Structures are given as structure tokens and as C-alpha cells.
Amino acid sequence: MRLATAILLFGTGFLAARLSFGQDNVRDFEFEASGAATVPTTNGVVFEALINGKGPFKLIFDSGAGVNILNPAVIAKLGLPAEGSAISVPAIGGAVDSKSFGVDDLQVGTLKMHRQTFYSVQLPWPDGTGPVGAVGYELMRQLVVTVDYANQRLTFFNPTSFSNPPRGHRIALVPDPTQVVVNASVGGKGEGDFVIDTGDFGGVSVNSWFVKKSSLLHYVPHRYHGVFGKGAGGDEPPGWISRLKSVCVEKTCAHRIIAYLSDGQASWDKHAGTIGTDTLKRFTVTIDWPHQQLYLEKNREWGKPEIFNRTGVLDDFDDDGKSLKVVAVLANSPGDRAV
Q1: Residue 244 maps to a domain
Q2: Most exposed residue of 24, 62, 188, 222, measured as fewest CB within 10 angstroms of its CB?
Q3: pLDDT tier, 68 (very low <50, low <70, confident <90, very high otherwise)
Q4: In a domain, 22, yes or no
Q5: Shared domain check, 84 and 204
Q6: What DSSP element (H or E) covers 72?
Q7: pTM reported for the whole predicted model
Q8: Element spanning 212, H or E
Q9: Residues 188, 275 within the same domain
Q10: Closest to 32 in 3D by CA, of 116, 108, 139, 142
């Protein structure tokens, strides 16, 4: 959800993770005989789906999302029935008031999910400019999911027929009710529990309490400070942009990673931080939630350094969703010196 180019890229980073709305309800799915369904993606995790036979709609596979979410305009367009009263859910940028709505059928390629619940939340793109919803835990808890960043595709597997574990490093998940959590070290300065968050389009985000505990700011370069991203609830807390020598999940490491080191309190910071798409794209990532396993297999992007914004000028969509506006100029950056 942080800057990867001059354009502000958002991830949903939706729930602080321990919500379990509807997880005890009966859910079911259908596969064809192969027991797998593969769909093309953009950015590794944005795919198209049919909702109640209508669409297609662009959704994010967000392993950090504890519930399914849809933009209010899409819910209204589909005429989805409300299932409950309004609730307040924690999100990056602040709590969001939301209602739940029932979906009879969600079709992703040849995979069909039935009786799904979605929560009404506006994603941080203007309508018509980006994905309109996200799915995470409600799919993961039933299926095995492979994110193939290098080849831009998602594959969903029936766990009962998923008999050949992928290549790469197998990692046992840290127990958590709704999120994919692993033990990781950042910058070689301490270990903590990090969320594998495919809905965060940035790299590594480190929460303020872990930054202080591990004294990261004393060991890593940190030149730029500000607000660099937002979620469904608005802007995230301010922080520093830094480059870490490595981020390691057990024995599997990625090097020269752009990191966001928060120095503000947030409602979702129980864990040490998150590992997002800009880091995960170096791997083929398989999440086997039913067996509490994660697989990381290096791909052709492994070893390539992330490139931070070279201008220091940060852009975002204007309210019309069609034009861009400058939202910040980083101090002492090329853009700042050019003013």
C-alpha cells in the first residue's frame, strides 16, 4: 500500500485480523474434475470474478483480509440483500462502519463459491479506477491458493486433491484466527511475527512498537519521512522509508527491500508488521491454510532490488478518479531541489 513508483498504489490492508464474522457458517465450493482453477491477474493478485452471474468485477486476493469486501456502488448495482446491522471494523486509516450482504455465487474461472458474505467498504480508489473488492480468509480457509507473480496468475486448489506440495521452502504458519502469519527477521535486527499480506501493494511495513523494540532506526538509513499510503479507512500513520539489507522468513530471504518504518500508533499493529506484494513478487507463494503451511519458491525476480520513487514527487488520483494531483514532495529529493 505504499509507493512503488511515482503513482500511489493502495492495498486494502483491511482487517486488523482477528475478526471472524461468519466463519462458522456453512460455505461450499465447486471445482471441475481437475480440482484446480487458474485465472490471469494483474499485479499478481488482481483478478476478475462473476458475482451472482454478473460482471466481471475486479477483485484482489488479499491474504490480509479477514472478511470479503465490496464497494457500496457494486453492492447497490447487484441489489445484494443485507444480512445484518451495521458494525465498526478496524482498517488502515481508521475504523469503517460496514454492513454485511449475501452473495449466492462467486465464480472465479472454473471455481464456484456459494453463500459468501461481503462487507460494504469503499476501497481507496475512486469508482471505476481500480479493484472494487477483495477476498481473503473466507477463500483461504477452504482452499489452497498459489500466487504466481512471475507469470501473473492465481491458482485455487481443492485441498483434498492437493497432493503434490510445491517446490521451495515450506514454512509452518504462526497460529492466528484469520491471517497468514510467519516469523520473520528484518534488517538482521530482531525477529517478529509478520503478516503475509498480498493486498498490500508495497514491500515491508514495520509497526512502530517493533521499530522501537529492535532499534531499527539506529541501524538502517532513513531519509524520507511522511505519509506514504492509505487503506480503506484513510491515511496510514506517518513513518520513514528505508532500505533493508534483507528480510528473511526462516531460511528464505529477499534482499535490498524498501521498508516503511512506522512511527505512529495504529489500530492493526498487534503483529510486528506486514510483508506485501513488492517483496513477495520475488517468489511463487502458495498458501495452504487448511494445513497451516506456506511455501515460498524463488522466481526470476529474486535478487532484483526494489526501486523507490526517484523523483520525490508523490501523486494520487484526484476526486474525479481520472486525473492525478501532487500530494507531497519529499524533502531534499530531486523534486524538492527542482522547485
Answers
A1: yes
A2: 24
A3: very high
A4: no
A5: no
A6: helix 72-78
A7: 0.84
A8: helix 208-213
A9: yes
A10: 108
